[in-house]
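<instruction>
Derive structure tokens from the sequence

<record> Sequence and structure tokens follow
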Amino acid sequence: MTTLTSGDIAPDFSAINQHGNTVNLKDFKGKKVVLFFYPKASTPGCTAEACNLRDNYTDLIERGYEVIGVSADTIKRQSNFAVKNELPYNLLADVDKKIIEDYGVWGPKKFMGREYEGIHRTTFVIDEKGNIEDVILKVKTKDHTNQIVKTK
């Protein structure tokens, strides 16, 4: 699991979103960022999480947050996921897992007794200066927005 904690400088990144545009963390200086990592687009848990953020997107924007999702899915899969679920925010295609590894969310997982390598569902709340404000390790997919804004 990630070794990044509150107060650390968020690793910068550059990746392509679902529209084929380049997104850089440094472009969001002066804004708060919700950077959420999810295992696979269009799976039940990831869809629940993405839709919870979609349903609360206006509130998050009003509170000064930008929302960015990251998985190892292709641009095409990210695009299909965004269109199907009407997701209004950036979904980054981190196929080479550079961002995923920089944030330390890739590692061993267990599901139904089977062990495998994958993305640990994790959210980083990054402040206006690019510092990590909060790390959410136990994401509640259907109530994620409340976890993000709980103390704000």
